[in-house]
Amino acid sequence: MGVWSGSCHCGAVRFRVDAEIEELTRCDCSLCRRKGALMAKVPESGLTIEAGEENLTLYQWNTGVARHWFCRTCGIYPFHRKRSAPDSYGVNVGCLEDFDVTAYPYRLADGQTMSVR
Hints:
By secondary structure, the protein is mainly β. Helix content is about 5%, strand content about 40%.
């Protein structure tokens, strides 16, 4: 089980991930393609917001199921509630301290065909 501290760029939003990370994904939906983040799937119980929840702003589109949060100060995307697994979060591993992306397998997630609009 891994434990990582995470934050947005300005540090207003701070969180902790306490979960086993098995792989990293990059989604090809129109939003994720533009933000370009590598993500790890984390169960709901594995993400704890430690500070700055009031500084998060929510973006939803298409079906409105996925919930993408951004820091309203620096604009960084730290995590989102997944549409394909609504009991999990997609965490931007670029926001995690001392996280070695080369230690995990990586795959492209097919989000493009999930669009309904």
